[in-house]
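Hello,

Our lab assistant flagged a job as stuck in the queue for most of the afternoon. It eventually completed. Since we weren't sure the result was trustworthy after the delay, we are filing this so someone can double-check. Below is the sequence as submitted and the structure that was eventually returned. Let us know if re-running is recommended.
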Amino acid sequence: MWFVLGEYRITGRRASDIAASVEAGVGSGALAPGALLPPMRELAGVLGVNPNTVAAAYRTLRERGVIETDGRRGSRVRARPATAPRDALRMEVPAGVRDLQTGNPDIALLPSLEAPLAAAARRYARAPTLYGQEPVVPELERLARAGFDADGVPAGPVAVTSGALDGIERVLSAHLRPGDAVAVEDPGWYSVLDLVPALGLRVLPMAVDDDGPVVAAVERVLAEGARALVVTTRAQNPTGAAVSADRARELRAVLARYPQVLVIDDDHGHGIVDLPPHALGGVTRSWAFVRSTAKAYGPDLRLAVLTGDAVTLDRVRGRQRLGPGWVSRLLQYAVVELWSSGAVDHVAVARAYGERRDALVAALRERGVRAHGRSGMNVWVPVADETAVVARLLTAGWVVAPGGRFRVESGPGVRVTVSGLRVAEVAELADALAAAVRPATGGRGA
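-- returned structure --
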């Protein structure tokens, strides 16, 4: 049997088959974002199955981030189902147009991995990794712990994951269950905005300014029942926000009233930012601090070091043992070499990104255009009409990222990645941005 929804037929007799049928329709585009699904009893009657079977299918779809249910309003395909990630909004770049949308680091500022990987290979040749060894290389654990201590991160065990997002996912999965609410920055990193619903969790957006999450917004989401809070310590994507010392103190005071909330600090900007991180973890019972190497050493060096409370780390490492087991020791040895050799001048890297970012923010301010970029490699420009601004910039020879990738409830904007920008080009880009923004705002800067 089947149920016809528009031009699409939902089929299946088992919950898994019904869920797969809906998911296939969403993946193919036959079931559009926002499409209302039939009531469970109605679909069960047409398919000739028990309503509990359809309920189980819908529950599976919610947990996979495909649909959402709003009480009596029914179930519908999510505006951005997990099968259609926000990164799909990336624009094609015509020949001859400058691409400032990717969020990638400047290749010229990345260290060569030839020597670190060669050193890792030599270590491996002397003592090949075998099953049963500790998952974290002792030297990496020592260096990571020393770095955490220097930055005021509370004491805790150390784990290694395959990048920051892997670490965040593992920590969320260690504590939360489908239906739990997670507070995320808005605008914020689109991978987290996609990950949360894909885990069957609910997104509670919280506003961000240059100093990090706004205190009133954090108080609101906690009062609304957020079970977890994900905060970027510095180089926030897309706004460049960095949690200031004063803001951190205010947020810790708020969190102290909610000891049951899981707090995750994302420090993906380590190695490219000259501002210190101000961690929020340690105030509540459950917390984690995730430090990635990808922005400083290249996206293919998929490694992050993770610390947190003993229970969280025990759950993360235990589940990791049942999956990949460990992150390759070859990569761990390479990071040890990078961290201990002194071959990378992180201060110079941070200065290079800062010069480009600060120059663009200042140039836009001179032209009456408001922009944000306190740290990292991105500048966020609030606009009235993203589509119009992106189109005008494309005509002028520049591609920037539309803000829709990064937003839930916050106002429209565009993100400019400055890593591929030369300081000498800033004035030309600022002129193009100002010209693109002003027609959409009645002659005033956004």
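-- support follow-up --
The delay was a queue issue, not a problem with the job. The result is valid. Residues 346-366 form the longest helix (21 residues). The radius of gyration is 23 Å.
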